[in-house]
Every structure is written in structure tokens, then in C-alpha cells.
Amino acid sequence: MATYTRWLTDLHTRARKIRAEVPGLGRYIKPPRKDRTVIVTDTSSALPEAVATTLPTGSQLRQIAMPVMIGEQIHSDGSADTNDELPIALAAGTPVRTSRPAPGQFRQLYERIAEQGYGSIVSVHVSGKISGTVEAARLAATQSPIPVEIVDTLTSGMAMGYAVVDAVVRGHNGIPATKLAQLIDEQATASQVYFTVPNLDQLRKGGRIPPLTGLLGQLLQVRPVLTLNEGAIQLMDRPRNFAKAQQIMVDKVAQAATQRPIRLAVHGYGNLDSAMELAARIDEYSTAPVPVLMIPAVLVAHLGLGALGVSISPELDYSTIL
């Protein structure tokens, strides 16, 4: 996928440009590890593994996989078996749930980071209103040998992912962890996420919407548009077909672009052609190539097969780095 490759290349180019412009730092000179901050996140950020190897500063990025329960079997978000079995389970109506990672996983990761000589950690996670992940991180932080700042982004997908990428670049340049956490929180708050789903069944099963709302949606055959509002999944509109639902998301992107420079990402699950079409329609509004990425399992479990979404994030403010 050419657009995805261009997006990764753009991330790399931007990060190298920032490194070259930081006063007092030569192109290949790194601050000592004790002055650098590692960013820990979870797979609900939708960040591909390739990001860590693409970014010049990617050594300071760690991801913890979200557990996904398909029937009675526990899988890891992003693993090959999850990618194979999850769409089949959703199509067959098999119960799909997500769980938080164990606090012990976070504690072990924090300890390994400390052993590697880093001075601090910022742990950045999916909204606490749709997952208990951030609470697990908080519990582990109390036992960490180095300081850990916890950020509940109140969002998911690349609205969280872009904030993580920017934090990795900032943290490499010696910005204190407390300041990084503040910047991540501000950026995530300024981001937006919109999704459309074929129906409301999965949301109703997961208790994310009232049963009556789900039933009415099914009877009226609407193609609902949802958003994350203060961290919770919220029904925003009820268009009668997919074309109108997609247009609502395009309009939201266009409106956001009039207010500030933005970066975009499209998320899909089981609908690559529709996701590619949406990415092409909104490309003109983004300051960077628009990647098409898989919807994180923590959201797919609520949204269902065929969900399509877009995340809108503000462009990185270079004044917070230099």
C-alpha cells in the first residue's frame, strides 16, 4: 500500500528534521538515557510495529498488547491468530470482549526500562471509560523504580497514536516527563474520532448503548455515526445509508481543517476498499499522507465487523520541541 509506505517515510523524515534543529544537539548526538523518557502505550493506539523501527527515536517506544477474548479463548491484540479469528467470530456472532493487561505486565516492563538506564516513563493509554488499561498502569506505576506519569487520553486509535509518536520525538530531546504528559493530554484532548458501523448490534451487546436504541437502529436500518465524547462512545448521528455516513465524516474533517493544520488516519475493519476510498477523499485536508490502519481490537469488540472511522489530530507544534 503506497500511501502507508509514504506515511511511514514521512514520520521518519519529520523526526530526523526535528533532531537536526534542536539547539545543542548534533545530528548523531543523543542525550544520555537518564535524561530521556520512554513512552509506553497499548495496542489500542493503532500504531503498527513498523513505527518503532521507522522512527529514529523509536527505541523509546514500547507497546503492550491488549487481551482479546474470542469466545472463551484469550488472544493478544495484533497477533496473527487474533487477526485470523476475530473477523470470523464477529461475523458468526461469537462473543468478543476485551480485557485490560495485568498490572504485572506493566510493572515488569517499567522495571526493564529502568534497567536499561532510562530516567522516566510516560504511560499513555486508551480511554478509561472503555477499558481498564489505564488503571492497571496506575497500579503498576506505584511500584516502578523510576518515575511514571500516567495519561488517560480519553480516546483511542490514531487520535492517541499521533500523540504517542510526537511524545517519542519530544522525549528523545530531553523534555521532562511531567511536561510530556501535559502535552500528550492537550494533544489528545484536541483530537477527534468518528466511526460508522453497519448496525448497532455489537454496541448493544457490549452495553455501550441502551437496548431500545439498538433495536430502533436495527428497525430503521440506519448507518449510525459515533464519536468518542469525553472518553465514552456516543451516538452522534443516524444517517440512513453508508454514503451519507461517510459524507458526515468527510464534513467533520473539512470543518476541523479550517481551524488548524491537521493530520489524519483512516481506520477500517473488513472493508479495505471503503477505507481506501475515504482516505482518498480526505487526503487534501491532511498535512501528511493519510494511512489506512486496522481498527484496534478494543474498539472492534464494541463496533463490530465493517466499522469505518477517521481520526483527526492537530499538527505537531514545533515550538514545544525546540
Automatic annotation (TrEMBL):
PROSITE patterns: DEGV. It holds the Pfam family DegV. GO terms for molecular function: lipid binding. It comes from the Bacteria. Keywords: Lipid-binding. The keyword Ribosomal protein does not apply. InterPro entries: DegV, DegV_C, DegV_domain_contain. NCBIfam families: DegV. This is DegV family protein. It comes from Auritidibacter ignavus.
